[in-house]
Amino acid sequence: MFNHLFSHIDIGNLRLKNRIVMTAMHLNYTPHGEVTDRVIAFYRERARGGTALVIVGGCTIDEYSGGTTMINLREDRFIPGLRRLTDAIHADGAGAAAQLYHSGGSAHSILIGRQAIAPSAVVSGFSKEESRAMSKEDIQKTIQNYARAAGRARMAGFDAVEILSCSGYLFNQFLSSLTNMRTDEYGGSFENRMRFGLEVTDAVRKEVGGDFPLLVRLSGNDFIPGGNTNKEVCVFAAELEKHGIDAFNITGGWHESRVPQLTTEVPRGTFAYLARDVKERTSKPVITCNRVHNPAVADALIAEGSADMVGFARELLADPELPKKAQEGRPEEITFCLGCNQGCFDHIFALEPIECMVNPRCGHEHEIPEFKRSGRPKKVMVLGGGPAGLFAAKTAALSGHEVTLYEKSDHLGGQFRLAGALEDKSEFKLLIGSFTQQAVKAGVTIRTGMTGDIHRIREHRPDAVIVATGGGPVRPDIPGIEQGHVMQAWDVLRGTRDMGREVVVIGGGVVGVEIAISIAKIGTISAETFRFLFLSGAEDAETLRDYCIKGLKKVTIIEMLPRIAGDMGISTRWVALQMLRRYGVDVKTGARAEEITPEGVIVSRSGMTELVKCHTVILASGTQSVHPEGALDGYDGNITFIGDAKSPRKAYEAIREGFHAGRNL
Prior knowledge:
Elements: E1 9-11, E2 14-16, E3 20-22, H1 37-48, E4 53-60, E5 71-72, H2 79-90, E6 95-101, H3 109-112, E7 117-118, E8 132-133, H4 136-155, E9 160-165, H5 170-175, H6 190-193, H7 195-208, E10 214-219, H8 230-242, E11 247-251, H9 272-281, E12 286-288, H10 295-304, E13 309-312, H11 314-318, H12 322-327, H13 345-349, E14 379-383, H14 387-398, E15 402-407, H15 414-419, H16 426-442, E16 445-448, H17 454-460, E17 464-467, E18 471-473, E19 486-488, H18 489-493, E20 502-506, H19 510-520, H20 527-536, H21 541-549, E21 554-558, H22 570-582, E22 586-588, E23 591-597, E24 600-605, E25 608-613, E26 616-619, E27 623-625, E28 638-641, H23 651-663
Parallel strand pairs: 3-4, 3-13, 4-5, 4-6, 6-9, 7-8, 9-10, 10-11, 11-12, 12-13, 14-15, 14-17, 15-16, 17-28, 19-26, 20-21, 20-26, 21-22
Antiparallel strand pairs: 1-2, 18-27, 23-24, 24-25
C-alpha cells in the first residue's frame, strides 16, 4: 500500500526514508525566538510519527525579516537551542531543515518594531502599510544575512536549509512588477527582477558549501491580477537550479490572493499542476503542497509523475502518526485535517500558539504525555456518539478504563455527520469514521440505537458518566413559524430538498451561510460536465462560468446582526463571503424576521418593513443543549457534561472537553 509514497529519495546528498515532508508553519511556540521545550516536543512527535523531512520555521534572518515570536537564526547565541531541536528530530530518523524567512514589505511594523523594507516603497496588500525602499546597501546586507543564517543552521545540525520565495514575501516582491518599481539592475526586466533571489542563493551556497542541500519554496503562481504566473515561476526555477538549488517546494499564491489555498472548498490535490510544470522544467526533486490531504492522494500524485514528494503541514497537526499509520496499512485510523483553520491559521493571525481542532494534544505535547493507563480503572458510560462523545470515550479507554458509549440514533457522528452532507465538507464524514475506528481499537463498546437512561445506568452501575448528548436547533419565537413551508437547517442537511425556487434562510451565522451556499449551488453544472463541454467546444468559457455559478434557487439570508458570518474565523470567513457573492445570495444584515406568512417573511430593517417572498423558510438560528431528560435522576456518581450538552459551542471546544473529560477520570 502506498508504495510510491514510502520509497526513499535523495535531496542532494541527503537520503530520506519516504516522500513525506512536513512543511514549515508559524507556530508561535518561541516567544523570544529561542527554542523551547514546547517546540522540541512538537517536532519530535512529528518525526516519531514517520515524517521523512521536517522543515522548521520560518526562521528570521535579521531584524527586518519577522517578529520575535519566530525561531531566530540572527545570532550565534541561538545555536545551542537549535542543536537541541535538530538532535530531537534526528533521534527518530527524520531529516531536519531550517526555512530562511524574510517577509519584506509584508511585515507589520508593530511586530518588527520598525518600518518594513521592500524593493520599492509600496503599500503592502497584506500589512496595509507602506514599506521603505531598499538601498543597494540594504540589499547587500540582506543577502549576507541570508548567508549567515544558513551557516548558523548548518552549525546547529540542520541537514538542509530552505529559502522562502512564496506567500508574497521579499523574494516575490522582487520578482513581481507590481511591487518592484526599481530602475537599477534589480528591477525592470524579469531577468533583473530575478537577480536578488539568485544572488541570495549564490551567497547561501558559498556559505554552506557544495555538499549541503538547498531547497527553495516557490509560489507556483502569485494568483494576483498582473502578477507572475507559473510560466515565469518555471523560468525562475530553471535559473535557481543552475545556481545550486537541490529541490523545489511548490505552493501557490500570496497571502492577499483571492484564490483559496487551504480551506475545505479547495479540492484535494488541486495545485499539483503547479508542481508538475516546475518538474517538467527542472531535474531536481519537486514537492507539491496544499490540500493534498491524505496518503492515497499523495501516492497517486507521485505515481502519475506530478511530483516527487508531498508536503503535509496541517495534516500532521491533526495526526502526527499519519505517515506511520499509512505505511502500516491503517489509513482508516488517521485523524484527517478538516481544513477548518480554527486552531491553526486563525490562531496565527491572532498571534496565539497553534493548536488543532481534532487533536487536543497539538502544541501541548510537552505538557500532556502519551496516554498512561490508570492504576484505578473505572467503569465509564458515555452518552452520545458525536465528536465530543467519541473523543471522550476513546481517551478514557486509552487511559485504561472500561468504556461503553450509547448513541440513541442508529449512527454515530452527531453534527459532524450533518456537516459532512455538504458538498465541500466530506472530510467530516471521514473524521467520524476515524474517531469510531480509534475508539473501537482502544476498547470502547459502542451501542447505537440505545439511550443511556436511568435504568441502563442502574444496570451498568458506572463509576462515571460523561454526557455528550449534543444540541438541537433553536426554534425562534416568530409569528407564523408553525407553517408547513418552514424547516430547520438540520432538515436540509438530512436530505430534505423539496423547497421550491425561492428560499429564505433566517440566521447568518456559519450554519446559515453554509446552508445558503449549498442551496444556491443546486442546478449549477459539475466539474465533470464543465470539463466535457469545455473540451468539446460546446460552449465558450464565459458561458460555462455562468453555468458554474448560476443555480436554480434564489436565496436570501436574514441576519439580525450588522455583520454576516460573525462566528467564522478570519482565515475562512473571507472565502464564505466570496462564495455568497459568487452564487448570488442576497444578504440582508441588520434585519429582523417579524412574521412568516404563506407568501414569505416580513422583515424589518432600518425602520422599514418589507415582504421577502419565498416558497421555503429555513431556520438557522443557533443551537440549544439537549439533555437526556430523567436519565440521571437518582445517580450520584461522577457526572461530566461536555460539548453542546454543556452549552452550545464550537467543535473546537467540544472535542477538547471530550479529551480532558476522558483523561481526567
